[in-house]
Amino acid sequence: MIDTHIHADSRTSEDFEKMFISGIDTAITCSYYPYKINNNPEILLNHLNRILNFDPKRAKEYGLDLKVALGIHPTNSLKNNEIIFEQLEKWIENKEIVAIGEIGLDENSDLEKKVFKKQLELAENTKSKVIIHTPRKNKLKVLSEIKEIVLENINPKLVVIDHINLNTVEELIDEEFTIGLTVQPQKMEVEEAIEILDKYGFDKFLLNSDISNKPSDPLSVPRTIRTLKRLGYDEKEINKLAFKNAKKFFKI
Ligand SMILES: [Zn+2]
């Protein structure tokens, strides 16, 4: 199984062990710095370097293959971002990251939009995959802005839009985006994810736990996959969600 969106830097080694033992072979860790940055790019750069240089080794000790996505999370948007972009270009060139992420809009401020667009341009120019965050609050309204910006700036085939639920899936289903389902306490239960899959099929979706410093379930991917199995869903369809769609999309 592949958990397509986690925040390994805020989780313990015990989580990695549980995930691996429960059948997760690979996870993709995304950047999100949960503290104040004060427009200081050095703080963010430290955070990104820590993810890249430290967490994959930590996870590997427990068997978990941790891939890395780096970028400027919308809540970490900063004006002074040149050194971050310089580094992002190098990481992409050296194939050290599998995607730019997570990026997107949260409070929908002008600065967030500016930084978001700049990262989409970089992704389009380098043909990088992007993992896009959608907020907990005002999800549908912000999502329609995100969709508009994405369609103007990048090939939608490079994009996964994440944390989509029953209320927002209609907005994306007819587009060429890949759609991320996040099963996490306070975000979405297993049953809601299954309702979406029942309605729209398994082809367009990736699955993740988004484990972070917020309430999280490191086993939400195996919980969802095994529930589908218990309920008698077709093995081929389950495998798409468990790993095949993610392998194809991220080329991992
Ligand atoms: Zn996240």
UniProtKB/TrEMBL annotation:
A molecular function (GO) term: metal ion binding
Gene3D superfamilies in UniProt: Metal-dependent hydrolases (3.20.20.140)
Family annotation (InterPro entries): Metal_Hydrolase, TatD-like, UCP005295
Presence of the UniProt keyword Phosphoprotein in the record: no
Keywords: Hydrolase, Metal-binding
Pfam families in UniProt: TatD_DNase
Keyword Hydrolase among UniProt keywords: yes
Alphabetized PANTHER family for the sequence: HYDROLASE TATD
Family to which the UniProt record says this protein belongs: Belongs to the metallo-dependent hydrolases superfamily.
Name this protein carries in UniProt: Hydrolase TatD family
Organism of derivation: Methanobrevibacter olleyae
